[in-house]
Amino acid sequence: MSDRHVDGPLQPGDRAPNVVLEAITREGKIALEDYRGHRPILVGLFRGLHCPFCRRHIAAQAQLDGELRGRGIESLTIVNTPADRARLYFRYHPLPNLLAASDPERVSHHAFGLPNLEFTENETDWPRKVGMDVLMSMPPVDMPGELPGPMARPAAAEYLNNKDGYEMTEADQRMAAGGTGQLFGQFLLDREGIVRWTFTEVPDGGRRMFGAPSHQELMSAASQVAS
């Protein structure tokens, strides 16, 4: 594992750390070092499967696999969920071509500089702390077709979990207890392991929370890395 500590998310031009994680969708381990010198890779570092927004982000990244491979780019999803729990979930909710790894300790999130946000009553020091007063005053989440209308972030998360029929296990509860505020990010690395593009929840004081890059933005970046 990398022991690198950073003050914020890695930026274009930074060298990505090596992380070695237990694979979920195949046997053995997955190491970022294995891709260096060979192929670019899109690394998605998500909260656990207990997060309904991340379940959707994971599915969206999996759907890009064919287009990315067409440009010579691999794709890796990392989830803050124990491997056994994640394997069980994907057994019943398979995503074709998904390459995923488990990181219950969020070692990779830390190595890539993604903060674990602390929720407070009224103290905000973004991206380390956010008060519930600030969180509730943020623009509502609008997901046509998923939500009945714009909703506050906590209410939207609860609604989506109920809609999905997602049943929290003890493993999910452990991950949520320590990582509900873990901010997520996607990092596109070139074949030498250098970050060339990122999307994270960190910028804009929380307005990006639960958001995702557009298909056009991500594939445009992929085209630049592949060229």
What is the CATH third-level topology name of the domain at 20-116 and 171-226? Glutaredoxin
Spell the H/E element sequence: EEEHHEHEHEEHHHEEH
Q: What's the architecture of the domain at 20-116 and 171-226 in CATH terms?
A: 3-Layer(aba) Sandwich
CATH class of the domain at 20-116 and 171-226: Alpha Beta
Domain Thioredoxin: 10-227
Protein name: Peroxiredoxin
InterPro entries: AhpC/TSA, Thioredoxin-like_sf, Thioredoxin_domain
GO molecular function, one term: oxidoreductase activity
Mind explaining what this structure looks like?
The chain is of the alpha/beta class and 227 residues long. The protein has a domain at 20-116 and 171-226: Glutaredoxin (3-Layer(aba) Sandwich). It is 32% helix and 17% strand. It has 8 helices and 9 strands. It has helices spanning 52-63, 65-70, 83-92, 107-111, 132-137, 153-164, 170-179, 215-226, and strands spanning 20-23, 29-31, 41-46, 74-79, 100-102, 118-120, 129-131, 185-189, 195-200. It has a 7-stranded mixed beta sheet with strand order 2-1-5-4-3-8-9. A two-stranded parallel ribbon has the order 6-7. The longest helix has 12 residues, at 52-63. The protein is globular, with a radius of gyration of 17 Å. The protein starts with 19 loop residues before the first strand and ends with a helix. GO terms for molecular function: antioxidant activity; oxidoreductase activity. Residues 10-227 form the Thioredoxin domain. InterPro entries: AhpC/TSA (IPR000866), Thioredoxin-like_sf (IPR036249), Thioredoxin_domain (IPR013766).
